[in-house]
Amino acid sequence: MRIMIKGASFCLLFFLSSFVIGLDAVQANPNYRDALAKSLFFFQGQRSGRLPKTQQITWRSNSGLSDGLLAHVDLTGGYYDAGDNVKFNFPMAFTTTMLSWGALEYGKKMGPQIQEARAAIRWATDYFLKCATVTPGKLYVGVGDPNVDHKCWERPEDMDTVRSVYSVSPSNPGSDVAGETAAALAAASMVFRKVDPKYSRLLLKTAKNVMQFAMQYRGAYSDSLGSAVCPFYCSYSGYKDELLWGAAWLLRATNDVSYFNFLKSLGADDGTDIFSWDNKYAGARVLLSRRALLNNDKNFDSFKQQAEDFMCRILPNSPYTSTQYTQGGLMYKLPESNLQYVTSITFLLTTYSKYMSATKHTFNCGSLLVTSSSLRNLAKKQASN
Questions:
Q1: Where is the Glycoside hydrolase family domain (predicted)?
Q2: In a shared domain, residues 52 and 117
Q3: Domain boundary among 251, 266, 281
Q4: CA 251 to centroid of chain Cα atoms
Q5: Domain range holding 95?
Q6: Could you tell me the pTM of the whole model?
Q7: Strands 324-325, 331-332: parallel, antiparallel or unpaired by DSSP?
Q8: Is the pLDDT of residue 110 over 90?
């Protein structure tokens, strides 16, 4: 039986929006702790490669053990996308970044599930390390021919479709997928900083190298790889948002001022009312606004203002809202896989609410006063829907 979900990353983000808003209420309705556990459990069903003895989903077994063979490298591991047997690194890396962000912001409330979250993150980052280091000058960004795979209904243990290998390089750049991979590695390096310092250092070193590649060789991976990623995971928003996102995570992980200087030079001022595997502007701004709010660093006020502009476009009673809602109160962004946008935006609502609450910060959308409770209540409504 295939899991028919458009992009594993979208389904898995549900746990982010569920655990951040009330894990302390274990018996609450809805039960966020139970939702978190089950959402993390889903990762095990998506694993590719040689499965560990700790694997709990026993109807899954080893698969994709020859991944990378066509390029004479080892690219085993990582996650399959949705109910398919393709490994699309672009959305997989976004999932990993968000998992790491969730663990960094809310890990103390996750109880024993933090171990499962780390395991889910590491399954991806072990794979990304291979993709970024096995061949100097190349970043591998996917395995499996999607055009063939999507026509073939078979479980990964039995797949007999070609395991094509895709990469970006200086002559065929992919700043978007490289920037997202760097973000995933940098964010994960902080998750493992105390529990596995050696692994954390390796992740951060690799993140810096991949980010340098993304910045130096500009271009969209959609242009380089064509039908290998389009129309499945084209970079519709371009690559500037991933450069912003990757640099924001490297800045948080390193405090290296060169990343701040790069951020300022990007001129990434596009307004948005979306946050997804493709468009990272809003996420980067919320992440960067953390310094403005928690550290009172005026250098980051512009990012705070952009984050609040995003919130004003989301709040239903804001005079600047550009977000539709169903009669039941659920956000409606796009007709295909709408919940992916609901869950990712909800994560930003709860996280910015957390920053606001810590500093007793409020802001205005025109005449509407927005408090941390305003964002939190909207987030709770999305989770209950």
A1: 32-383
A2: yes
A3: 266
A4: 17
A5: 1-266
A6: 0.94
A7: antiparallel
A8: no
